[in-house]
Design a protein that fits this description.
By secondary structure, the chain is of the alpha+beta class. 13% of the residues lie in helices and 24% in strands.
Amino acid sequence: MPPRRNGGNVDVRQLPAGTRAFFPVFVPGANFATGDGHAAQGDVEGAYRDLHSGEYGGAVANPIDALTRILASMRGADGKMLVDSFFDDVRDLTGDERAWARPTLEVNGIWGGFQGEGVKTVLPNAAHAKITCRLV
């Protein structure tokens, strides 16, 4: 953002470790995010094409099933993060920080298999997910 009455650009690479910064937001409804955001797409591939489930069902792994198991393994039934080392180097949070300044891992999109109208009994050849993380 260009310099204005509220400040200007901040190059965080020039701030020393441990710097505390306060950024006023003067736009109604605007949000300010903390942390270091990362995004990725995960792809699980099976056969070179969709396969008929009546012929291959049970004998061939379903990429959508495999992907949903991978995604589900990242959190426990209580919502607790289970990814190894995800909270390493995260300092103890106090007060209001617990509500908004913690690492997050979110599945933002998932797709695969037949997407058209009606029903098609196939084992999909691939499944995909978009994931974002906020590290603090």
